[in-house]
Amino acid sequence: MSSSPFLIDTHAHIYGRDFLNDFGAMLQRADAAGVGHIVVVGADIESSLAACELASRYETMSCCVGVHPHDASRVTERCYDVIRSLAADHPKVKAIGEIGLDFYRDRSPREDQERVFRRFIGLARELSLPVVVHDRDAHDRIMAILREERAAEVGGVLHCFSGDLAMARDCVAMGFYISIPGTVTFPNNEALREVVHGVKIEHLLLETDCPYLAPVPHRGKRNEPAYTRLTAEKVAELKGLSLEDVARITTLNAQRLFRIGQAGQSARIAYRIRDSLYLNITNRCSNHCSFCAKFDDFTVKGHFLQLEHEPDAAEVLSAVRQYSGYDEVVFCGYGEPLIRLDLVREVAAALKREGTRIRVNTDGQANLVHGRNILPELAGLVDVVSVSLNAADAATYSRLCNTPFGEGGFRAVCDFLTEAKRYIPVVTATAVTVPGLDIAAVRSLAESLGVAFREREYAEVG
Question: Is 0.85 topped by the overall pTM?
C-alpha cells in the first residue's frame, strides 16, 4: 500500500459494467489515494454473488450480501436461502446489506419493502452479523423497524446517511454508525455537514457508494473508491482534524463494525492529533465526568490509551523521540496528568531545553490532590495551561464532574485559574457544551477570573 493515510471505503458497488474497462487502474488509483480496503456491497442475488467473488480474489476487499428495497417485491424464499448461505459460509461476508426502505422511488410496494427489511434483520440477528441499511425518504419507518426488530443487538450502519442530526444521534444511541458519502462536499448539503459537526467522529464511517454520488470536483461523473479521500478531507475540515486523524479513526470504526484487519492494540504513551503530540502518562483521574467518553472506551481519537503501567520519564521521552514536526507537546492522556506532577516537571524540563512548547490540559484540582500550591513548580516549564472549568457554579460542577472534593472541588478550579496567571503565560478555561449547560454563564465566570475561555464541542469530547 502507499504511504498515504489508510482509508476504508465502506460501501462500494464495483462489480458490473461501470468498472469493466478499467478495473485494475481503478484499484491502483485507490491505493495511490490511501484507500487500503474496500467493502463491496451486494444489492441483489447477482451482485451479492459478485461481491463475494471479488472479496475472494482480493485480500483488500470484504463483502456484504443482501437485497435492495427496490427489488423487495421479487424476493422469494430461495433468495433468503441464498443470502443466508453466503453469509454463513463465505468467510469474507461481514454484514447483511444493503437492505432497507426506499420511499423516494417506490419501485416495490412499501408493505413488501417493510416485510423484506424485517426478514433480513431477523437473518442478521440469527447469524450475529451487522446490517447495512439503505434509507431514502423513509426515516421514521426505518427507525421504528430497527427498534421493533431489535437490530441494536447486532448494530450496523446507516449508509449514505440522509437524515438530520436528531436522527443521527438516535442511530448512534442504538449502536449504529453513520456513513458519510461524497455528498458532504455538495454546496447545498448543509444538513449532512451539520451531522458531521454534531456526531462524534468515533461514530462515523466513510463511503463512496460508487459508481454513484461522486464528490466535488467529480460531481456528475462516475464515482470510485479513490474518491473516499476527498470525503475524508472534507470531514477533516469540518472536524478541525488532520486527514491522518480522520483516516485513523474512521478506519478503526470500520474495522470494529465489520471485523476486518484489526490488529491487537497496544497502549500509546505519545500520540498525535492534528499538529500536537499528546502524552498519556496516567490512567488515574481526579474526577469522573459524566460527559467524558474516555470512561466508556480506552480508545481516544483512534489511539488506544489503556496503560499497562505508568511510564517513567525515560519511557515518555523515548516515545516522544519517535515523532517530529509537531507544534507542541501536550500533557493530556487517559487521565489527569498533574497527578504525576514530578514526571510532568522532569519531562517538560527536558523538552524545554530543546525549545519545545509545552501545554498541560488539567481538571484544575492538582492543589487539592497534592495539598499545596503546585503552580510555582510549573513556572518556566509550561507555556499554556488549559483548565476544565465546565460549570458556573458548584452544584452544576459537582453534578457534571462527579468530583470527590465536594463543593471544594469547584472553588479549587476557580482558585487554580486565578493563581495560574502568575506563573504560566497563557491560561485558558474550557467548558464542554453539554446539553442544557448555560455556556454563557461559564464564559462570564472565566472572564471574571481574568482568563481566556474556549468551548469544547460535546460531540467531540474524548
Answer: yes
